[in-house]
Write a structure and sequence with these properties.
36% of the residues lie in helices and 33% in strands. By secondary structure, it is α+β, with helices and mostly antiparallel strands. The protein has a domain at 17-133: SecB-like (Bacterial Protein-export protein SecB, Roll). A four-stranded antiparallel β-sheet has the order 1-4-3-2. The longest helix has 29 residues, at 99-127. The protein is globular and about 60 Å long.
């Protein structure tokens, strides 16, 4: 009787949803200071432009890579003080997750877990330039995800009207995530 209970528990564990971060790593990083050292003589304060993108891909049955990429462009007048492009990546296991929950997990939860690593790496890189520090603000990845869904729905609506009213079907994945 005890063996039967253990078998039932073992079977139940194999179908229970599970999610875990397996590894984080810097996938790509670049720092450019094309106008140094002359730009250090400028007296005006810099302007900063930050762009963030989320991506990912399926690596195996329940293994996914998620990425968060940031581009920081700092200018004084029209000259670039520095340009940083950095991609923080992570390997996640997501097993037995229903499809309707998998997309938000990959588009919101994974990037939210990776972003603090990315922020620290960018701050460290800027610190090494001997310029004043820049700390990236917190990001609401749920809002970014919802915004991206709206953009994709509008694009599909425009394509559907151009194709005689045929609309796309299925779940919209976050940018860069493909389901196999």
């Amino acid at each position: 009787m005890a063996e039967q209970d253990q078998n039932q528990q073992g079977n139940q564990q194999n179908t229970d949803p599970s999610f875990a971060l397996q590894r984080t790593y810097v996938k790509d990083v670049s720092l450019e200071m094309p106008n140094a050292p002359q730009i250090f003589l400028e007296q005006e304060g810099p302007t900063v432009e930050v762009t963030i993108n989320v991506g990912g891909q399926r690596l195996a049955e329940s293994i996914y890579e998620s990425t968060v990429t940031v581009t920081v462009t700092t200018r004084i007048n029209d000259k670039v003080l520095y340009l940083i492009e950095a991609t923080q990546a992570g390997i996640f296991e997501a097993a037995n997750i229903p499809n309707e929950q998998l997309d938000p997990l990959l588009g919101i939860v994974c990037p939210t877990m990776l972003y603090p690593y990315l922020r620290a790496n960018v701050a460290d890189l800027i610190n090494r330039t001997s310029l004043p520090p820049l700390h990236l603000a917190e990001v609401n990845f749920q809002s970014l995800y919802e915004q991206r869904l709206q953009e994709l729905a509008q694009q599909q609506g425009q394509q559907g009207s151009q194709q005689g009213g045929q609309e796309g079907s299925g779940i919209v994945l976050p940018p860069g995530v493909t389901r196999q």
